C-alpha cells in the first residue's frame, strides 16, 4: 500500500512537470500508439499458434521484446512525422518509463495527461486492436478531445469504430486469448457514441 501511494505521488509530480513545459499558445497533441500489444502482438500469436503472452514467452521471450521494440520505434517515427507538420506539442507516451510502475499506473498517468493537457488525440490507424488504445479512445470522447487518425490526420466517425472492435473481438477470440476486456470496452463505447 505504501509503495502504491508513493507511485501515485510520483504520478502527480510527473503531471505537474507538464505545467512547466506547455504554453497556452501551442496546441497539445497526444499520440496514442502501441507499446506492448496491438497488431504486431496479435500477428505473433497467430503466427506461432499460441493464445497469450505467457505461451508466446514460452516459445521465446525475445518475441515480445521485439514486438515492443518495433512498436516503440513506430511510435517514435510517428512523432517525427507529426513534428514535421508543426501542429504543436506532440506527447509520445512510449518514451516515458518509470521504475516500479505497473500498467495500471501508466494508464492512470496518461489518462490524467490527456484529460488535463491534450487538445487533440491522434490514434494509430489500427488502435482498435489494443485495449489500451481503446481506453484512450474512451477518455478522449468523455473529455471532448478532438480525435484524429494518424494517416493524413483524418477525422473519423466514432460510430464506425464499433464494427472494427467487433472484428477484433472475433479475431482475438479465435486466437484463444481472453476477450473480456475488449467486450467491456465495446459495451462502454456503445453507451457513449
What does the secondary structure layout of this molecule look like, with pairings?
Elements: H1 2-21, E1 28-32, H2 39-48, H3 53-59, H4 62-84, E2 89-91, H5 103-117, E3 120-123, H6 131-142, E4 146-149, H7 161-175, H8 180-192
Parallel strand pairs: 1-2, 1-3, 3-4
Question: Could you explain the architecture of this structure?
Answer:
There is one protein chain. The protein has 193 residues and is α/β, with parallel strands linked by helices. It has one domain. 60% of the residues lie in helices and 8% in strands. It is built from eight helices and four strands, in the order αβαααβαβαβαα. It has helices spanning 2-21, 39-48, 53-59, 62-84, 103-117, 131-142, 161-175, 180-192, and strands at residues 28-32, 89-91, 120-123, 146-149. It has a four-stranded parallel β-sheet, with helices on both faces. It starts with a helix and ends with a helix. The model has no long low-confidence stretch (mean pLDDT 92).
Defining traits:
193 residues; alpha/beta; four-stranded parallel β-sheet; 60% helix; globular
Provide a short characterization of the protein structure.
This protein is α/β, with parallel strands linked by helices and 193 residues long. The chain is built from eight helices and four strands, in the order αβαααβαβαβαα. Helix 6 (131-142) links the parallel strand 3 and strand 4 (146-149).
Amino acid at each position: 500500500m505504501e509503495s502504491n501511494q508513493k507511485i501515485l505521488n510520483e504520478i502527480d509530480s510527473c503531471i505537474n512537470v507538464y505545467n512547466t513545459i506547455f504554453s497556452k499558445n501551442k496546441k497539445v497533441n497526444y499520440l496514442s500508439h502501441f507499446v506492448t500489444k496491438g497488431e504486431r502482438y496479435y500477428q505473433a500469436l497467430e503466427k506461432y499458434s499460441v493464445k497469450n503472452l505467457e505461451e508466446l514467452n514460452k516459445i521465446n521471450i525475445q518475441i515480445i521484446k521485439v514486438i515492443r521494440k518495433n512498436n516503440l520505434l513506430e511510435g517514435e517515427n510517428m512523432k517525427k512525422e507529426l513534428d514535421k507538420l508543426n501542429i504543436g506539442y506532440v506527447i509520445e507516451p512510449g518514451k516515458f518509463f518509470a521504475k516500479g510502475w505497473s500498467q495500471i499506473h501508466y494508464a492512470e498517468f496518461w489518462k490524467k495527461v490527456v484529460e488535463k493537457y491534450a487538445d487533440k488525440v491522434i490514434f494509430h490507424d489500427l488502435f482498435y486492436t489494443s485495449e489500451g488504445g481503446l481506453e484512450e479512445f474512451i477518455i478522449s470522447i468523455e473529455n471532448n478531445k478532438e480525435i484524429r487518425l494518424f494517416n493524413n490526420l483524418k477525422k473519423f466517425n466514432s460510430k464506425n469504430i464499433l464494427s472494427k472492435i467487433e472484428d477484433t473481438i472475433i479475431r482475438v477470440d479465435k486466437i484463444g486469448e481472453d476477450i473480456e476486456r475488449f467486450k467491456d470496452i465495446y459495451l462502454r463505447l456503445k453507451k457513449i457514441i
